[in-house]
Amino acid sequence: MKYKKISQAFVLIAGITMVSYGAIRGEAATVLAKAIKLCLECVGIG
Description:
The chain is mainly alpha-helical. The protein is built from 2 helices and no strands. The protein starts with a helix and ends with a helix. This is Thioredoxin. InterPro entries: CD1871A-like (IPR047708).
C-alpha cells in the first residue's frame, strides 16, 4: 500500500511538471489552435 501511494505521488508530480513546462513553452496556444481547426472540420465549416 505504501508503494502505491509513493508511485501515485511521483506520477502526479511528474504530470504537473510536464504540464507546467508545456505551458511555459507556449504549447497551450498551439493545442488550442489545432483543436479549433479540428472542430471546424468536423462541423464542415473549415
